[in-house]
Design brief:
Layout: H1 18-28, E1 30-38, E2 43-52, E3 55-61, H2 67-81, H3 90-106, H4 115-120, H5 122-125, H6 141-150, H7 156-163, E4 167-169, E5 175-177, E6 186-187, E7 202-203, E8 206-207, E9 209-210, H8 227-240, H9 249-256, H10 263-270, H11 279-288
Parallel strand pairs: 6-9
Antiparallel strand pairs: 1-2, 2-3, 4-5, 7-8
Helix pairs in contact: 3-6, 8-9
């Protein structure tokens, strides 16, 4: 042979066939079974291969790969493709964000669930909860959630629900999802729905940021527990043109306690010059000034 690898020329060759070829294969060929990841289909496939060195003489598909070998190949494929290859549900992504929030807030008591940490530990949290799975499409979403919880230790679900709940129950009865994807947890809530709260909402001793002008992201819990009423007094002051200091924060807080679903209107009637029909207008005003 001559020339470069990409343009080699065979100058002399001899035909090898029949019994001579059989003898060579029998004496020198190596037969093996292996699992490979097929990117177009996202599936792990098994095959039997006969080789002499780097030359493949025969390749035969096998009906079903060995489960352990297939999982090892699938883990390798997921690492190469990245975290986005794992089909987490919305609830699964929120679960990961909740655990990540507790890891940032409380430290090593809760596991690191960053992309890098999860990809590195696939054999620990992913493989045991995906029995028999041999393709990306076959990955069980509930198994992903269970795998994440397994990193937190026994009884993790109950403790997680206590420290980082999925929803915030407003005094008006609204059940609002808590977002954990940012540095601090946050909720989207109308200012009026905070009536009835005597403490600023907090998770793991950190304040919950609320948009629509209701709270400031990253704010610390208020030691006098009157933040919801004070914030509302400020919003109402801007909307009515009155000095917020003239609106009694203690009075607002007291009137709002136990108000239930009618708390916004009850508080509105408590303010002179702030009518029941203005409740919706005040909400829009609060949003515009956020």
């Amino acid at each position: 042979m001559s020339g470069k690898a990409q343009a080699a020329r065979i100058l002399a060759a001899a035909e090898l066939s029949g019994e001579a070829l059989t003898d060579v294969l029998d004496n020198r060929a190596v037969e093996s079974e292996e699992c490979v990841f097929d990117p177009p289909s996202g599936t792990v496939r098994a095959r039997r291969i006969k080789r002499i060195g780097a030359i493949t003489f025969a390749e035969t598909p096998l009906p079903k790969p060995d489960e352990a070998a297939a999982m090892a190949v699938l883990c390798g494929a997921v690492r190469k493709l990245g975290f986005k290859a794992l089909p987490f549900s919305g609830a699964g992504l929120q679960l990961r964000d909740r655990i990540g929030f507790l890891h940032r807030s409380l430290g090593a008591l809760w596991p690191d669930v960053s992309d890098e940490a999860l990809l590195e530990g696939l054999e620990t949290w992913f493989a045991p909860y995906q029995p028999g799975v041999m393709s990306l499409k076959g990955i069980d979403r509930e198994g992903l959630n269970e795998g994440l919880l397994s990193l937190c230790g026994p009884g993790a679900r109950k403790e997680l629900d206590r420290l980082a709940p999925t929803h915030y129950q407003a005094p008006t009865g609204s059940r609002l999802p808590i977002r954990y994807e940012a540095e601090s947890p946050a909720i989207a809530i109308r200012v009026q729905e905070l009536f009835g709260e005597t403490r600023h909402p907090a998770i793991a001793e950190r304040a919950v940021a609320a948009d629509a002008g209701a709270a400031v992201a990253g704010a610390a819990p208020d030691p006098d527990h009157a933040r919801p009423a004070r914030l509302l007094a400020g919003v109402m002051g801007r909307c009515t043109g009155r000095d917020a200091r003239a609106l009694s924060t203690p009075s607002l807080a007291g009137k709002s306690c136990g108000g239930g679903a009618h708390a916004p209107c009850q508080a509105a009637r408590h303010l002179k010059g702030f009518s029941k029909t203005d409740c919706g207008t005040r909400t829009r005003c609060a949003r515009s000034t956020a």
